[in-house]
């Protein structure tokens, strides 16, 4: 109940600041840094660093690779179901949630698929916020990190920590970090192939 009230109060405060004319983009970035700082502070205060390092394993380091492969397979399946050419469906999902990068990269080659890339990856982030608590309880906290894709190092990290526990903070952060390193290489490469073929 307290969490719901806090979310609603935050939404109202954000709406009010927006009406006053405060630029959302600047506050959004500042809020993300603040959230990550608070999580780091909590880890430091409660001496969880050693516990978190223990939670890192080869298996957890393979999670980003599994996420990327699963996303690409999902793109193939989604492309077939939605009758989207696979040459475009694959670069759309290769953004693994990084909509602000995927959309503009794809838009350089196709405005239509730029919009699709933006929306698909934006919705991945939104659905992570909504569905992670359910997925964590149903499929496990660590495997469910994969639904967040590249967003798990920033925007969805607070939700993952809240509902998955502080012990998976480092796994989620590294997951998002590795994917964030791969996306700027993979998406332009796949988009150039799609545009050329």
UniProtKB/TrEMBL annotation:
The chain crosses the membrane at residues 28-49, 61-82, 88-106, 113-135, 168-191. InterPro entries: LysO. It comes from the Archaea. GO terms for molecular function: L-lysine efflux transmembrane transporter activity. Keywords: Membrane, Transmembrane, Transmembrane helix. One of its GO terms (cellular component) is plasma membrane. PANTHER family: LYSINE EXPORTER LYSO. This is Surface protein. It comes from Thermococcus chitonophagus.
């Amino acid at each position: 109940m307290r969490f719901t009230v806090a979310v609603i109060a935050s939404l109202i405060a954000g709406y009010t600041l927006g009406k006053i004319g405060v630029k959302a983009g600047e506050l959004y970035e500042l809020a993300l840094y603040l959230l990550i700082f608070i999580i780091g502070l909590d880890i430091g205060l409660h001496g969880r660093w050693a516990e978190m390092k223990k939670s890192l394993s080869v298996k957890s380091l393979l999670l980003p690779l599994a996420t990327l492969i699963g996303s690409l397979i999902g793109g193939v399946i989604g492309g077939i179901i939605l009758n989207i050419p696979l040459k475009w469906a694959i670069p759309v999902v290769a953004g693994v949630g990084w909509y602000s990068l995927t959309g503009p990269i794809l838009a350089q080659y196709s405005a239509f698929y730029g919009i699709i890339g933006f929306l698909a990856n934006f919705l991945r982030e939104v659905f992570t916020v909504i569905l992670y608590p359910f997925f964590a309880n149903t499929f496990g906290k660590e495997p469910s990190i994969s639904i967040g894709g590249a967003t798990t190092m920033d925007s969805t990290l607070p939700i993952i920590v809240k509902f998955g526990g502080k012990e998976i903070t480092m796994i989620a952060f590294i997951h998002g970090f590795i994917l964030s390193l791969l996306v700027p290489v993979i998406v332009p490469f796949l988009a150039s192939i799609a545009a050329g073929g």
